[in-house]
Amino acid sequence: MLLVREMGEADIEAVSAVRVEGWRSAYAGLVPQMYVDAMTVGRDAAARRKRFADPHRRSADLVAADADAGRVVGWVSFGPCRAPVAGAGPVGEVFALYVRPDSTGQGIGRALLDEAHRCLEDLHFRASTLWVLRGNEGARRFYEGMGYRADGGVQDDDYDGVTLTELRYRRTLHQRRTR
């Protein structure tokens, strides 16, 4: 059984492990290996603790935990869109979504993203965006299956001197009706 809940400070190490393992699995052959090899759970957790403690933090974080074992198996971070999207109204953004590589294909990413969408809707966002590496075909298929479509936004990121292109994906959120 899977439990999706708000991330707490006690989850930081586990979330960092999910993120580092996720990078090593999802970005193999896409991101320079030296960059991926330099990632450590300890450094990621230290940076995450700082962000988590920031009183001005604008992101929200959810984890998916195996209810039987209590082990964190996935994580999503989201909040207000970092850059305006013309003509889209209030837009949220999914900043990160990672699932332990040994737990993919079990609906964990879908459960986390569904809950992130519900939270964004509760915050009155009309759409959600996210960024995907152009070559990450598996992630692109997953997000397209969740209703996202590439909207023409493009940005380049530098990883150890290698420029990689990210594509912006967007999806309309279904606004809940209030009585």
Concise summary:
This protein is 32% helix and 33% strand. The protein is α+β, with helices and mostly antiparallel strands and 179 residues long. The chain has a single domain (2-172), classed as 3-Layer(aba) Sandwich (Aminopeptidase).
Task: Report mean pLDDT, rounded to a whole number.
Answer: 92
β-sheet strand percentage = 25-35%
For the largest beta-sheet, the strand count, sense and barrel status come to: 7 strands, mixed
Distance between the termini: 33 Å
Looking at CATH, the homologous superfamily is Gcn5-related N-acetyltransferase (GNAT)
Number of helices: 5
CATH architecture annotation: 3-Layer(aba) Sandwich
Name the helicity range.
25-40%
E-strand count: 7
Provide the structure class: alpha+beta
Q: Any idea of the CATH topology?
A: Aminopeptidase
Series of H and E elements: EHHHEEEHEHEE
With strands numbered from the N-terminus, the spatial order across the biggest sheet is: 1-2-3-4-5-7-6
Shape: globular
Number of domains: 1
Q: What radius of gyration results from the CA coordinates?
A: 16 Å
- Report low-confidence residues grouped into runs of 5 or more: none
CATH class: Alpha Beta
